[in-house]
Amino acid sequence: MSTPIPVTVLTGFLGAGKTTLLKYMLKAEHGLKLAVIENEFSEAGIDSQLLGDEPVQVMTLANGCVCCSIHGDLTRALYLLLERLDAGKIAFDRLVIECTGLADPAPVAQTFFIDEELRERYILDGIITLVDAKHADLHLTQSIAQAQVGFADRLLLSKTDLVDATTLDALRERLGRINGRAAIRTVEHGRIELAELLDVRGFNLNPELGLRPTPTLRPVLKPATPDRIATLVLRSETPLDIDHLSDFMNQLLEEHGKQLLRYKGVLSIAGEARRLVFQGVLKLYGFDWDSEWKADESRESVLVFIGDELPEEKIRIGFAALSSS
Q1: Where are the domains of the chain?
Q2: Any idea what DSSP says for residue 321?
Q3: 56-60 and 122-132 as β-strands: parallel, antiparallel, unpaired?
Q4: How far apart (Å, rounded) are the C-alpha atoms in residues 230 and 321?
Q5: Residue 317 and residue 243 in contact, taking contact as beta carbons nearer than 8 Å
Q6: Cα–Cα dist 15/200, whole Å
Q7: How many C-beta atoms surround the C-beta of residue 237 within 10 A?
Q8: Could you read off the pLDDT tens digit of each residue along the chain, which spans 325 residues?
Q9: Ramachandran region of residue 31, left (φ > 0), alpha (ψ -120 to 50) or beta?
Q10: Per the CATH hierarchy, to which homologous superfamily does domain 5-196 belong?
Q11: Does domain 229-324 have CATH number 3.40.920.10?
């Protein structure tokens, strides 16, 4: 069985600079053979004058990278790339998928959870979202732009040279409230170290939650915010009963699964020396047992939800009941 090909999903609102970044990735001297899937709704195609109007067109660039333009189903394009790879017609070791500026990244991510054959051949590495610092306030009035931020494993700020330091600090704070897991980096005219984009391991089942430190982990008053999407963190120092935890999660997914953009947990289970790690997108999730808790560390369970208008108080009460049952 061959090693699965890492996949990076690149998203961001219209004009945030996705195509500029892709052009840089394809031209940079990195020694990688990247395949890039873009579709016809991009602001400007990477090589639109060379790619025709067929539903799927694939071409190999001079440096060995592969450009694939799709005018239809993503799954079809993914299989076509595999067919050509297996036949020796093309070569690539990483895949980047560019979402359109108005696209919800959820269906793209779900593709790599649902299709068993694709799951064996590709592995979702991370979702990267570009945010236009100059127009972020306007863009974030759109729920889809907030969702793109919420799904992200890493946030890239573009056009930061067009705003002052106060505006930039306020934007970073706002993005942190929406998505407390994603690291924030700056991209300058499409240029950034590829290490910031690749091997993010955002979908690995590991105990790393990626939470940025905050002044208060349990705020008494939730700050007023215009954003529908926010990060909810739940903690417990009491070992959890796995059956009660399962009931809690099943009910949460049944009632609010479509609102749970991303979530991850590292949990202490009663009677079990190992950590239980799980994560998911919407109603699709996976879990596994990780390493044992060390004798000198606090066995604290932490659940992180990035959700769309979640009933936070109801969820907090339900989770708190796990510690007392």
Answers
A1: 5-196, 229-324
A2: H
A3: unpaired
A4: 23
A5: no
A6: 24
A7: 10
A8: 578 999 999 999 888 988 889 888 888 777 888 898 876 544 445 444 444 455 567 778 777 788 877 666 788 889 989 999 999 999 999 999 988 777 788 888 889 988 889 999 999 999 999 999 999 999 999 999 999 999 999 999 999 999 999 999 999 999 999 999 999 999 998 888 888 888 999 998 888 887 765 533 344 344 557 799 999 999 999 999 999 999 999 999 999 999 999 999 999 999 999 999 999 999 998 889 999 999 888 899 999 999 999 999 999 999 998 875 5
A9: left
A10: P-loop containing nucleotide triphosphate hydrolases (3.40.50.300)
A11: no
Amino acid letter, 280: G
The residue type at 227: D
**Residue 263 CB contacts under 8 Å (≥ 6 apart), including other chains:** 279, 280, 285, 303, 304, 305, 306, 307
Nearest to 268 by CA among 295, 234, 302, 294: 302
Token couple for 212: 């940025």
Q: Which residue has the tokens 């699965």?
A: 4
**For the packed helices 74-86 and 106-114, what is the interaxial angle rounded to 10 degrees?**
50
C-alpha–C-alpha distance, residues 41 and 127, integer Å: 19
Q: Is the pTM of this model over 0.85?
A: yes
185, two tokens? 């980096």
Question: What one-letter code names the amino acid at 54?
Answer: E
Percent helix, strand and coil across the chain, each to the nearest 5: 30, 30, 40
Tokens of 285: 């999730």
| Integer Cα distance of 2 and 18 in angstroms | 30
Which structure tokens are listed for 181?
A: 């897991």
